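It is worth pausing here to work through a concrete case rather than discussing structure prediction in the abstract. The textbook approach is simple: state the sequence, then state the predicted structure, then interpret. We follow exactly that order.
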Amino acid sequence: MSRPQRIGAQAAVAQLNGWTAADGPRDAIVKTFRFDDFNAAFGWMTRVALMADKLDHHPEWSNVYNRVEVLLATHDADGVTELDVTLARFMDKAAG
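Step two, the predicted structure:
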């Protein structure tokens, strides 16, 4: 499967709500999601994990109780691609 070409963080955040470019030199996008409780956060992570597996594109994330911090970048493109935008949109929709 061919991978999407790098578009860069700024092009991605222009298409998304609430996402920002990562701090530092890395070309990536970030967002923090907050849920009612741990169960809701973990359920969301499970739905995202299933989609990520279908896309063969896996997020970098951390979870503490009701908060999930996400960083998206396409490693083999060394930056942000449309694949990151697709997964970000799914995350937003799944979060409601």
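Step three, interpretation. The chain has a mean pLDDT of 96. The radius of gyration is 13 Å.
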